[in-house]
Amino acid sequence: MRSVAASLVLAFFDSATTEHHRMNTNPYVGMWVTADRNIRHELLANGRYVEARGKRERAYLGRYVVTGNHIDYWDDTGFTADGDFVDGVLHHADMILYRDK
Fold first, then answer.
1. In this predicted model, what pLDDT tens digit does every residue of 40-75 receive, in sequence order?
2. CATH number assigned to the domain comprising residue 70
3. Is the pTM of this model over 0.85?
4. Which of 8, 21, 51, 82 is most deeply packed, by most CB within 10 A?
């Protein structure tokens, strides 16, 4: 019979392995910007995002999930949104965002 401590250690490593795998399989991690750079989405490797609007560097914060070429957003305030990556461009709401160089 496994001890509680051993079970916790195994659960931690299983969770860390899953997080590591998820962090390394998303090809869309990075900064995405509108042509005028007014809207900026930073997709972080840990599944979180930061959206900047104009001078508001942290206008919206939340989590995201990418499935294939589709992205779903869940803002920390409860707002939801989605988008699609098409030919290297993010189509989100009525905006088009390009990978920042």
1. 999 999 999 999 999 999 999 999 999 999 999 999
2. 2.40.128.290
3. no
4. 51
